[in-house]
Design a protein that fits this description.
single chain; alpha/beta; 13 strands; 13% strand
Length: 356
C-alpha cells in the first residue's frame, strides 16, 4: 500500500493504482476527457496532467501509477497553464456551436472549459474537414465536433465487439469513423448507441425525432399515441432533480397527455405478449423438433449483432418481434379497429431507453 502526498493530503492506496484513482479516493477532482473508467485509460487528451516532484515533465494521471513517497500537485500554475493550452488547441478545432448543439449543458468539454476559465481561443486558423453522417435510423455523426478522444472507438471494439469505428488518417487529417470514411449505414453497425453514450461532446448522438413528433401532434387529421418503456419511468426523474430510480409514472403520463397525445400506453403490456408468444414458440419447437436452445429476440440490436457476427446462431433466435415492435403492430390493427381510427392515420411514438 504505497503512501503519497496529493496536494498536501496523505493518501494510501493499493499497488498499481493510478494517480487519477488515488486523487479520486482522496476527494480531489482531476479533469479528464479521453478517460473512461474501467474501459479506457490512454492518456491521449493530456487534460488530466499533474506535476510530480522530481519528474521533469508533467504526467497523465490516468495512466501513471503511484509510487511510495510520491508528491503530486494537481493544480499548480504549471498544471493549470498546460491544461489551458491543451483546451485552447482542442477548442480551436472544435465546432463550438453550443447553443444549437444536442449536448449543450451536458457536454464534458464545455464543463472542463468552464472549470478552467476558458473565455477565448487564442489559436485560430484552418479547421479539420467536416463530415456529417445522418444515414442510419438511430445515430448522427458530426466530425467537426469530434475531439479525437477515442472513447467511441474503445467502447465499440472492446466492449461491444463490433469495431465499426476507427481512427482514419494521421495528424491534423485524423477522422474518427468507419473505414475509408464511409457512412455508418455501410458497415456492421448494430445501432446500439454506446458510442453516443460515451461521447463527451456532440460528435455522435442519438437521432432527434422531436420536430417530427411535434408535426404529428399539430396535425388534427392524425391520431397520435405514445408507448413508454418501463425503464423510462424509473430514469426520467433524474432530469428533474429526483433521486436515481424514482418512479415518475404519473407525472410522465400527465405530461404526455398535456403535450397532446391521444393515447398513452406502457410497453410493459406488449412485453407480456412477447413472453406469451415466445413461450408458445418454445413449446412448438420442443414438440415438433425445432432448433434449441431458443434465444429471445426482444432486442433489435442483439438481432442485428447476431446477423452480422454470428449468422450460424440465427436459427436459435425467436421469430417474435420485440415488445416495442409488437405494440406498433397492435396499434395499427387491434387498437385502430377498437378506437374506430383508420390505421394509416395512427402515428405511434416510442419513448425507449435503447437507440436500436
Amino acid at each position: 500500500m504505497p503512501k503519497l502526498l496529493i496536494d498536501g493530503k496523505n493518501v494510501e492506496v493499493p499497488e498499481g493504482t493510478t494517480i487519477l484513482a488515488a486523487a479520486e479516493q482522496a476527494g480531489i477532482k482531476i479533469p479528464t476527457l479521453c478517460y473512461l473508467k474501467d474501459v479506457q485509460a490512454i492518456g491521449a487528451c493530456r487534460v488530466c496532467v499533474v506535476e510530480v516532484e522530481g519528474y521533469r515533465n508533467l504526467v497523465a494521471s490516468c495512466v501513471t501509477p503511484v509510487n511510495e513517497g510520491m508528491h503530486v500537485l494537481t493544480n499548480s500554475r504549471r498544471v493549470r497553464e498546460s491544461r489551458r493550452t491543451v483546451l485552447d488547441l482542442i477548442l480551436s478545432d472544435h465546432d463550438g456551436e453550443c447553443q444549437t448543439c444536442e449536448r449543450n449543458e451536458d457536454c464534458e468539454l464545455q464543463m472542463v472549459s468552464r472549470a478552467l476559465g476558458m473565455r477565448e481561443i487564442t489559436n485560430t486558423g484552418e479547421k479539420s474537414r467536416k463530415i456529417t453522417d445522418d444515414r442510419t435510423p438511430a445515430l448522427d455523426r458530426n466530425s467537426a465536433k469530434c475531439i479525437h478522444c477515442r472513447r467511441c472507438v474503445t467502447v465499440c471494439s472492446e466492449v461491444q465487439g463490433v469495431r465499426a469505428l476507427n481512427p482514419q488518417g494521421r495528424g491534423f487529417k485524423t477522422i474518427i469513423g468507419p473505414a475509408f470514411n464511409r457512412g455508418l449505414d455501410t458497415v456492421a453497425c448494430v445501432q446500439c448507441g454506446q458510442c453516443a453514450a460515451v461521447c463527451p461532446v456532440g460528435a455522435i448522438s442519438e437521432k432527434n425525432h422531436i420536430n417530427a413528433v411535434w408535426a404529428a401532434l399539430d396535425n388534427p387529421s392524425l391520431h397520435v399515441i405514445v408507448q413508454t418503456a418501463p425503464a423510462i419511468r424509473a430514469t426520467l426523474g433524474e432530469c428533474f432533480g429526483y433521486p436515481p430510480g424514482t418512479r415518475v409514472t404519473g407525472r410522465m403520463v400527465a405530461a404526455l397527455r398535456r403535450l397532446g397525445f391521444d393515447g398513452v400506453f406502457d410497453t410493459e403490456f406488449s412485453a407480456d405478449l412477447t413472453i406469451i408468444e415466445e413461450g408458445n414458440e418454445l413449446l412448438k419447437r420442443v414438440k415438433e423438433g425445432g432448433t434449441l436452445p431458443m434465444i429471445t429476440s426482444c432486442s433489435p440490436g442483439w438481432i442485428k449483432f447476431c446477423e452480422h457476427f454470428y449468422p450460424d446462431l440465427l436459427a436459435h433466435l425467436s421469430t417474435c418481434k420485440s415488445p416495442q415492435q409488437m405494440f406498433g403492430a397492435l396499434a395499427k390493427t387491434y387498437y385502430a379497429e377498437t378506437a374506430g381510427v383508420d390505421p394509416k392515420d395512427v402515428i405511434v411514438v416510442s419513448i425507449m431507453p435503447c437507440t436500436a
